[in-house]
């Protein structure tokens, strides 16, 4: 059974048919990059995977749980699916440590000590162990995004969803975040990334999904997809971004 | 001529100003209390409660404070209950300020970026947890400056209580003017006292605004 099983998912925003029958199976440990033009439905698909958006048809099963927008189901899902956003979305009024320990305490019911222990461990992983007591506003964009990754990791997810998490960063800060992702990938974390970092998608990713007009237009092994695009749409896209 | 010295005028005005302050404090405290309740109704997500709150806010924002005073003062007497001008003024100003505070606080809560909700939901927090740990603490910070700013409106609003016969600063001014026939001097003092009450509040509001902005 794949870790993420997306079966004929359709999504509408009013009359706008945004996802037109997505089928996707992702195994544990895979690193999957979703690429495509703006408006092709990449974010929407990602947000359907953890129940942030509802879908109108089809089904999504993650870690043997059906994804619905039911409150208790979303809470259960949060222990298996983590998400990192383009704009970090850290809690500005809480310290880094509090940002990371909040959900493990409330949702995973860890004690304060256990949560702090977890926080130190995940901060270590992203190379920010000395920032435990800092506030997000005191950190650089790259550091904030690494904290956001650490915050997700503290929930011990099986799959991490990343929506253009380097797009809001100054170019010189992109590398440190990609480095963290690379480490996670080599440690066997399942990653689903919407990304414009084509080099990363090609070199680190296992598989690339090219979305176009709400469909999985083309997909395959990462290097092969870039070397040998099969459809003119993907060809055009690759020429435009590389 | 007048048996009143300048000092007499000022002293009487200052004594009356105590009632302006008392009425302002009651209206603010009462308004904050009712406003808090209404705010919680509004964020409860229950359609009926939200709509009731909206109606309440629209009603009080859409009618002059003076009419609200009249309605409370004369309206309650219609039911055979004797209300003193003090009670009527305190009640009307409480209702008035609760509506405005509710609106201010709703704005603050809604100004918290959607991303804060989304991140919280992804971490599995439920509605109450998101509100309590994430949204309200941030909204509170933002709310302080406009709330203090609104207290200026309350202080100035108390002047209307003079019309139903409550002796506060403005009413005392009117009475002193009738006795001294020195409107410019009397109302000059009245204005000065209002200014001395309001100005520190405005300054505080602006300072808080700047301070919380800088560190936010
Ligand atoms: N909340 C929303 N309400 C209405 N329409 C939306 C909403 N979010 C997205 N859409 C529409 O859905 C379509 C797909 O949007 P989506 O954000 O998934 O695209 P994307 O591939 O992530 O694009 P980008 O690269 O710009 O992030 C677009 O046409 C967009 O206008
Ligand atoms: Mg997007």
TrEMBL record, chain A:
Compartments, as annotated in UniProt: Cell inner membrane
Membrane topology: Peripheral membrane protein
Gene Ontology molecular functions: ATP binding
Record field: transmembrane: none
UniProt record similarity statement: Belongs to the ABC transporter superfamily.
PANTHER family: AMINO ACID IMPORT ATP-BINDING PROTEIN, GLUTAMATE_ASPARTATE IMPORT ATP-BINDING PROTEIN GLTL
Protein name, UniProt field: Amino acid ABC transporter ATP-binding protein
Automatic annotation (TrEMBL), chain B:
Domain called ABC transmembrane type-1: residue spans: 17-205
Keywords: Amino-acid transport, Cell membrane, Membrane, Transmembrane, Transmembrane helix, Transport
Topology class, membrane: Multi-pass membrane protein
UniProt-listed InterPro entries: AA_ABC_transptr_permease_3TM, ArtM/GltK/GlnP/TcyL/YhdX-like, MetI-like, MetI-like_sf
Keyword Membrane tagged: yes
CDD domains linked: TM_PBP2
TM region(s), chain numbering: 20-43, 55-80, 142-166, 186-204
Compartment(s) where it occurs, according to its Swiss-Prot or TrEMBL record: Cell inner membrane; Cell membrane
A Pfam family reported for this protein in Swiss-Prot or TrEMBL: BPD_transp_1
PANTHER family xrefs: BLR6398 PROTEIN, MEMBRANE COMPONENT OF AMINO ACID ABC TRANSPORTER
Similarity field: Belongs to the binding-protein-dependent transport system permease family. HisMQ subfamily.
Name of protein: Amino acid ABC transporter permease
